[in-house]
Amino acid sequence: MASTQHTHHAPHAKAHRVLLDEHLPVDHHLSQVYRVGAGLMGLVLLAFGILGLIDNIGFFNTGNATIAGLNTNGALSVLSVCIGLLLFVGMVIGGNFASTLNMVLGVLFILNGFLGLGFLDTEANFLNFRIQNVLFSFVVGLLLMWFGMYGRVGSALPHDNPYWKARHPDEAAHEEQARQR
Questions:
Q1: Which residues are within 8 A (CB) of 87 and not within 5 positions of it... i.e. 6 or more apart?
Q2: How confident is the model over 13-18, as a mean pLDDT?
Q3: Which sequence spans correspond to the domains of the chain?
């Protein structure tokens, strides 16, 4: 005879799932952090890419062409311009879009750093990476992730933070009721 087990959860122990695309109030100050992060990183990448394109380096050249101490070629320059422009789009849109874009691109930069590290001194190194490019990719990735996650994750978010409210709706409702009394 099979028995069925029922578990009872207290109402206050509900699990609340917070999604990355939750709505951030338009005027929330966190949006400015996401915009500034996207804009700064976009500016750096755009400048690097444009300088590389102006230098007329071959598209898949694997020589020693450098811009600001980083090896480059035409492909890396075009890629840098495209990602820089994408970050500017994130800066203009702001809010959760900019935050999520920063996080996703940050992870991609970290992964690209590992790929570049694996391709050093091989024929598969079509972006002409050297160790300084790998380190740059890691730094940009970490900065983008930091800008994207700022105010979204952490154990000490303030109670007026929209992400804290989304994770703790019962407590947020209780605090709102207490504030209205």
A1: 38, 39, 41, 42, 45, 101, 102, 105
A2: 51
A3: 29-151
